[in-house]
Design brief:
The protein is an alpha/beta fold. It folds into 3 domains: about 5-205; about 210-300, Elongation Factor Tu (Ef-tu), domain 3; about 305-425, Nucleotide-binding domain of ferredoxin-NADP reductase (FNR) module (Rossmann fold, 3-Layer(aba) Sandwich), CATH 3.40.50. The chain contains 16 helices and 11 strands. The chain has helices at about 5-15, 20-25, 25-30, 35-60, 65-70, 75-100, 110-115, 120-145, 150-155, 160-170, 180-205, 280-290, 325-335, 360-365, 380, 405-415, and strands spanning about 210-220, 225-230, 245-250, 260-265, 270-275, 295-300, 315-320, 340-350, 370-375, 395-400, 425. It has a 6-stranded antiparallel β-barrel. α4 runs antiparallel to α6 (about 75-100).
């Protein structure tokens, strides 16, 4: 995933566009609030920018494939969604606080009143309901680690509050009559954000194409790794090496939620393999219950993690189950070795028992001498030291692994001013 994609910049520009549009009509606010107008101005700006971020965050969460390349991957798009949503919550909380500040010290009792839905005007209460709904769902997300399928249900209710927020804004009529551009902008945002929520919550399952596969093989290379082999029931899905799909396995004792897994191997007739590590409730249940003959539905593919777009000299750094895309690349190179590609593959594991498919890496190294494998064991060496990678500054780097490892590597690269456009990483922490 390249770090300099235009998607995040574009969405932040769209969110901040409300500021110059607001300036067209803000002098009228002075006439309405001639006492301490600055807090009133700031409260309007925080509410409008917060609403813009909130609406656009729904678009980013809708898993729209046509946007993925602009962000450099679905993971990057989801992270922008996360940051934009948190920004929205903070700004929306500031909105009533700034309105209340103007009554200090004359009538400090009004401060709490501004934060609660106890106003005489129903349209103002709509805003309070929306704000408190967003706050409570945000607290539930961060303070209590819910099971994924329960968290997903609560997250769907966020869309109710964008509708309440839009009604709050339009019923108040914030100088819209004298500012048609601002009116048009907010209408477009409201329709787009609400539409994205309806699409993802209600229509996504019906409108996205899925392919059915059958589980034809189960293997356990280690105690907590399950390799699943699948065969398509119709024509196989086309994808690029290193991409992932959202899988829904249909077996007893397992929810029908879709979870992302990277393809580790594929054949010309369309058979694929994935590897699943028993980490959470879902993957542990998958290990226990999945059987050959079970059905699976695939949605995708996603991901922009592609070594073929890199330079001829590359460094691959894998950690734990993050080895999956690299394993797919290795299997691809086994069928067509490249003399023009030089790769140093660093496989980071906790101990020697966690190494999977070492025979495959060894086989490629024997067929392709420019492919070198290095095992980094945390129980002996800790995290990988990028300073020890030969000719690092001349190379392109691909990273996939746990968050702690990835952050350690990215910080080390930043400290040595390594060019961002030559760093690519896959991040599954968005799920």
């Amino acid at each position: 995933m390249q770090l300099n994609r235009i998607g995040p910049k574009l969405f932040w520009m769209l969110a901040l566009l409300v500021i110059p549009l607001w300036f067209i009509s803000f002098p009228e606010t002075t006439l309405r609030h001639n006492i301490k107008p600055i807090p009133v101005y700031l409260s309007q700006l925080t509410s409008l920018v917060g609403f813009s971020c909130f609406a656009l965050s729904f678009v980013l969460a809708a898993r729209i494939k046509s946007l993925e390349n602009a962000f450099g991957g679905l993971d990057r798009m989801y992270h922008t969604h996360h940051i934009m949503a948190i920004t929205a919550v903070i700004l929306l909380i500031l909105h009533p606080i700034l309105l209340a500040v103007r009554w200090i010290p004359e009538d400090s009792g009004r401060i709490l009143w501004y934060l609660l839905p106890v106003h005489r005007r129903f349209e103002i209460n709509l805003g309070s309901y929306a704000l408190w709904g967003v706050i409570l769902l945000t607290i539930a997300t961060f303070l209590k680690k819910l099971p994924y399928h329960h968290w997903k249900i609560t997250h769907k209710f966020m869309g109710v509050f964008i509708v309440l927020g839009a009604l709050h804004i339009f019923y108040l009529d914030l100088s819209f009559s004298s500012n048609p551009p601002l009116m048009a902008y907010l209408v477009l945002l409201s329709v787009t954000g609400t539409g994205a929520w309806v699409y993802k919550t209600v229509l996504f399952g019906f409108m996205t194409s899925k392919k059915s596969y059958q589980v034809t093989g189960l293997h356990r290379p280690t105690r907590n790794i399950l390799e699943i082999e699948l065969t398509p029931n119709q024509n196989p899905i086309a994808f690029k090496s290193g991409q992932y799909f959202f899988f829904s396995f249909r077996t007893s004792g397992l929810s029908r939620e879709y979870h992302p897994f990277t393809v580790t191997q594929y054949t010309q007739r369309g058979d694929i393999k994935i590897m699943v590590k028993a980490l959470g409730d879902y993957t542990k249940a998958l290990h226990r219950n999945l059987q050959t003959g079970d059905m699976a539905y695939l949605e995708g593919p996603y991901g922009c993690f592609d070594y073929q777009k890199g330079t001829r000299s590359q460094v691959w750094i894998a950690g734990g189950v993050g080895v999956a895309p690299f394993l797919c690349w290795v299997n691809e190179l086994l069928s067509a070795p490249r003399d023009d590609l030089k790769v140093d593959f660093y496989y980071c594991v906790n101990s020697v028992d966690d190494i999977v498919y070492s025979n495959i890496y060894k086989k490629l190294a024997s067929q392709m001498p420019s492919f070198l494998v290095h095992y980094i064991r945390a129980d002996r060496e800790g995290f990988i030291n990028v300073e020890k990678i030969p000719k690092l500054d001349e190379r392109e780097i691909f990273i996939c692994g746990p968050r702690a490892m990835r952050r350690h590597i990215l910080k080390a690269l930043k400290d040595r001013n390594f060019p961002k456009n030559r760093i690519h990483f896959e991040d599954f922490d968005f799920v």
